[in-house]
Amino acid sequence: MNPSDHEFELERQLREVPVPGDLVARLQCIPEAAEIDAALDSQLSAVEIPDNLVPQLHQIAGTPVLVTRSIRERSGAQRQPSISWAVAMWASAAAILVAFGIGWTLQMQQNRGLASNDVTTDPVANHLAPATPTESQLELEWLGLTNDEVAQSVSAPNLTELAEANLLAPSLSQVSLPASLASPPQPVNIHSLSEELPHDLLANTFLMRWQPLGANPAVASSFGMPQMIMPSSSPVTFLPETKQYDRDFLLREASHPFTSPQDPAVRATKVAVTTSQESFENVVFSERPWSPELLENARTEEWLSATGKFYVPGQPGKVELRTAAGPAVFARAGTQLLQVGVVAGSADPKDRSPVHLTIAITPPENEEHALRTWMPVKIALRETIENLQPHDTLTLVVMSEFPYALIEDATLDHRDQWFAALDQIEPGQASNLAEGIRFAAATSLTKPGFGDIRRPLIVLSDRFPSLDQATNRQLRPLIENASQQGIDFAWIQLENENYSSILPPPAALDGMGRWLVTNSLRRLNRFLDQQVHGASTLLGTDAEVTVKWNAKSVGQYRLIGYQPVGGDFVATSHTREIHAGESATLLFELVLPEDGPNDVATIDLTWHDTEGKLQKASQKVSRLQFASSWQATPMSLQAAQLTEQCLALHQNSYFSRRRGNTTDELENWTSSLNPAFKQHASYPRLELLLPGLPD
Q: How far apart, in whole angstroms, are the C-alpha atoms of residue 458 and residue 518?
C-alpha cells in the first residue's frame, strides 16, 4: 500500500468513528480537580476516631511475642485433649468429602444437559466457550487446619457447637466452581465519559479523532536543517462542500481535481491569492538547491508568483487584473489554460526629486557562493533599473581587491549596458570590504547633492563580520563625515535570515544608516524599490479573486496549485501584503465545448488599500482571448505554463504521471520560447528553472 492509499484509509476510518452527541455536556459536568480534592477532604474530616485508639496501639506494641511449646514438651494431661480434637476434625473432613462428592455428581449431570442444549441451539456460543478445566485445576483442596495450626492453637473450640453446625452448607459455599460453570458477574452501570470510547485507546482512528489539533493527511512535513516555522501566507478557502467535488482526491494527490460548473455549488471559485515566493527561493537559493526534501514541499502558486514578472505593468499605485488564455501544450488535445494575474504597479510618488543611487557589492567567492548570494542580488539589480525615472541614475561599485566603479550614472536608457555590466561579475575574485566602503562613499559624494536630491548608498556583502576592531576605528570617522554631507547609508548582510543567527552590525556601522540581514530576492526587491522611490512599497492587502464560470461555455475546470495547507498557526493580525512590482497568479485548466457561447467567465478582484478601504475590480473572459497556438500565447502564460510543468516533473505529480510528460517534452517547448524573454529584466528567474533556453 502506497502512502497516499494509507492516508486515504486512515481518513476513511476517521470519518466512521462515532462521536457521542452529549460529549460537550458531559465534559462540562466533570468537576474540576480542586472540587474533587475538597470533597475528599470533607469526607475524610468526617471520620470519627475512637477515644482509646492510642492506648490500644501502645498496648499492642508493648506486648511480648507469644511463644508456643512443641507438642513433645507438653505433659500427658495436656496432650489428651489435642488427640480428641484431631479425631473430631478428621471425622468432620470425611463428612465434608462425602457431601462434596454427592453435590459434585449432581452438578455435573445438570451441566451435561445444559451443554447438550447449547450445542443444538447455539453452535457459535459453544465454539467460543472456554476449554474444559484440566485435572490439576479440579483437584480438591484441604479446607481444614494443618497439624502446625492445630499445635499453635491456644484453646480448642467447643465440640458440641461444631457437631450442631450444618457441615454441608459451608462446604458447598467455600468450594469455588470452575470458570466455565460460574455465571458471569453483572457489569456495574457506571455513567462516565469512556462508555462510548474505543476499547483500544491507542488505535489510529481514536488518536486521529481525539488529538487536540487533529491529524490532517495534507499536512506538509519538514525535512533538512532546522527552520523557523513561518505562518502560511495563503490560507485557502477553495474547498467546496459538495458531492460534485472530490475532496479525497485533493488530500490524496495534493492537487485539485477536475470539476464541472454544472453544479451550482462549484460554479464560482474563490481564492485568496498570494505573492509569496518562499518555496521558490528555498529550492533555488538555499545551501542545498534542488534537493528532494525542498522540492517535495514546494508550492506551485509561489513559483508562479516568483516567475510572474512578464505581465503588462500596472499603473503607479494601483492593483489591477490581467488575463491570458491559450492551449495547454502539456495536456491532451482540446484542453485550454486560463491565467488570472493580480499585478501591483510601482510605488513612485508624484513629483518626487531625482535620486543618485550607488550600490557596492563584494564579488562571490565561488560558484556555490554565487548561487546563494550573488544570483538574488543580480536579479534584483536587473529589475531595479526598470523602476528609474528619467532623471534617476545608478552607479555600481565592485569591492574587489582593488575596488572600482563598474558602471556610473546609468539611466533607464542604459538597460542593455547595465545588464552587460552585471554579467561581467564572476565568482573567484578577491575582495577588500574596508577599502570598498571607502571607495563607494567617495564615489557617492561626487554626485550632485543640491536641493532635495537624494544620494543613498547601499553596501551588500556577506563579509561584514570580518571587519576587525582596528578597521572599525578607521572606518567610523569616514562614515560619519559622509553622512554629514548627505549620504544615506544602508548595510545588507547577505545571509539567510531564517537559518542563521542575526548578526549585530559592526562598530563602524552601528547607528549609521539601516542594517538588514537577508538574501531573499523578494526582500531585496522591496528594499531597493523603497530606496529609489523614497516611499513605502505597500499598495494593498488581502487580495481575493472570485471566478464565476459560465456553465454553458465551460464543461470542466481545475485549479492548479493553491492546495490547502495544514498544521500552521496563522496569527489573527496576519495579512497578505501586495507590494509594488509584485504579482500573483491563478492558473486554470479548462475543457470547453465546441458549440458554447463566447462568454467563459467573469473575474472579480477585491483587496484593501493602504487606508483599509475595500477596492474592487472586474473583468470578463471571452473565447476570443484564447490563443490558437503556442507561438501566439502571451509571454506571461508561456512562463506560467513552463514553470508549472517544471515543478510537476520534479514532484512527479498526478497529472504529469498520467499524461506521460517528460523532460525532453519540456525542453522542446522551451526551445521555442518567445525571443523577447531574453531582453526582459526578469529573464534570469525563468532561466534558473528551465533547460534548453536559447542563448
A: 14
Give dist(CA 363, CA 370) in Å, integer. Answer: 8
Closest CA to 298 of 321, 281, 273, 320: 281
- Considering the chain, what is the average pLDDT of its residues? 79
DSSP-based helix, strand, coil % in the chain, nearest 5: 40, 15, 45
Cα–Cα dist 302/561, whole Å:
9
- How sure is the predictor about 173, in pLDDT bands with cuts at 50, 70 and 90? very low
Dihedral (C-alpha) 432, 433, 434, 440: value to the nearest 10 degrees?
100
pLDDT band at 202 (very low <50, low <70, confident <90, very high): very low
- Name residue, grid cell 563602524: 508
Q: Where exactly are the structural domains of the chain?
A: 84-185, 247-347+537-687, 356-533
pLDDT for the residue 131: 44
Sign of the torsion angle spanned by Cα atoms 409, 413, 417, 418: positive
* β-pairing verdict for 487-493 and 455-461: parallel
Distance between CA atoms of 659 and 636, rounded to whole angstroms?
Answer: 24
* Confidence band of 69 (pLDDT split at 50, 70, 90): very low
Contact 661, 649 (CB under 8 A): yes
Give the chain's end-to-end CA distance (angstroms, integer).
46
Q: Where are the beta strands (DSSP E) in 533-668?
A: 538-549, 556-560, 577-579, 583-591, 599-608, 614-622
Cα separation, 686 vs 310, whole angstroms:
10
Segments in 211-328 forming alpha helices (H): 247-253, 278-285, 292-296, 300-306
Q: Where are the alpha helices (DSSP H) in 73-146?
A: 76-121, 123-128, 135-138
Assessment of whether the complete model's pTM goes beyond 0.85: no
Q: Which CATH superfamily is domain 356-533 in?
A: von Willebrand factor, type A domain (3.40.50.410)
pLDDT in the model for residue 496 = 85
Element (H, E) at 637: helix 635-651
C-alpha cell recorded at residue 111: 451441566
Nearest of 662, 653, 569 to residue 254 by alpha carbon? 653
Contacts (Cβ under 8 Å, ≥6 apart) of 386: 412, 415, 681
DSSP at 394:
E
Distance from chain centroid for Cα 627: 39
Q: Cell numbers at residue 573, please?
A: 493580525
Distance between CA atoms of 676 and 689, rounded to whole angstroms? 18
Single-letter amino acid, residue 101: G
**Residues 6 or more apart in contact with residue 148 via CB below 8 angstroms:** none
Torsion 171-177-182-185 (CA) sign: positive
**Contacts of residue 488, Cβ cutoff 8 Å, sequence gap at least 6:** 454, 455, 456, 457, 513
Q: DSSP letter for 374, please.
A: I
State how far the Cα of 327 lies from the Cα of 592, in Å rounded to an integer: 11
